[in-house]
Fold these 4 entries.
Entry 1:
Amino acid sequence: MTKDPCDHCEEILQPFLDRELTDEEHHVAEVHLEECGYCRKRYKFEASLRRYVRQAWAEGMPPELKEKLSALRTPL
């Protein structure tokens, strides 16, 4: 049974973004992303989410927000 290319793309999306694939795997993923609008949207979303998280981390969190978030924690 042949694996659905979108299922395969879903499995390798994070390693693709992390640049952990072999050259051949990377090429296969790029070709699929060029051809598949759904997977291309998922890729763009994941890439932009990573940029947002890096930016938020670099900017730091104001102490007031940290206190508010700490107050929301529930004990384990």
Entry 2:
Amino acid sequence: MFDGEKPVRAYRIGLGLSPVGNKVRQGDRRTPEGDFYVFTRNDKSAFYLSLGISYPNEIHAERGLRDGLITKDQYLAIKQALKVKSRPPQNTKLGGDIYIHGKGAGSDWTWGCVALDDPDMRELFNAIRVGTPVRIEP
């Protein structure tokens, strides 16, 4: 977590079952890389608490359109959602439902999410609001 330019605290995390490389398509078990924002907070998550991440972002959408994974209409719907900072379409061949959530960071076990230990997730959940920027880097 960052406060301006200064790191406040580092968290131990778990990623997708295929933790190396950027997410390309639904079911690849990779965690997407890039710049996103939190589009929802869920205090009733099956994974303790969760923060929805705005995947796919514009870069993923452009690649998906170019590679024939999504249609032009899906691409435009993604761009529109990003423009108004709402939930991008989650049901395309790019995949979706990427969250930062609890239930443990001891290994890379998710289908593409970012997992934290529950106490860390509680701290992050209490500090983060909808619209907060998120960067996922390799």
Entry 3:
Amino acid sequence: MSGIESLRMDKTAFSVGPLLAESDEREYWLSRTPQERLEALETMRQIVYGYDPSTARLQRLLEVAQREPR
């Protein structure tokens, strides 16, 4: 397994609290390096959008535009 499939949530470290409660999440992310933040962001983006970089390809689009003669 590689990519998103290899990630597992530690359910013993999971807690639920009020939405407006103070959190130390900001301090945690500020303590991470920019590279670690970008890697976490990319992982979350792949989870949300179901993106697999090994199978994704750019679409090739071609459109012919006719110009008006002058």
Entry 4:
Amino acid sequence: MHTRELLHDKLTRAFSPIQLDVIDDSAAHRGHKGAGAGGHFDVRIVAAAFEGKGLVARHRLVYQVLADEMAGPVHALALRTLTPGEAEAETAAAADEASGRIIANV
């Protein structure tokens, strides 16, 4: 199983995410350690398991699940860990921006 699929499988089993994107970004790091073996990944995961947890706690949860991969084939992991509410707000903000609306938080 390719590392990307392994990461996707483990994260799915651990968090039952609403959304999960695992992107192998290794080609962008050509010449850098871990680049050729699929060692650089970007992960965006939306899961209720992150509710009430800060950023560091969320990342620790992910790193616990992927401990074996982090010790082996994964050299770098960029994480975007969101709750369902945060993902919804992010989507709404992007839609507002795309429509040209200007929103200011006062």
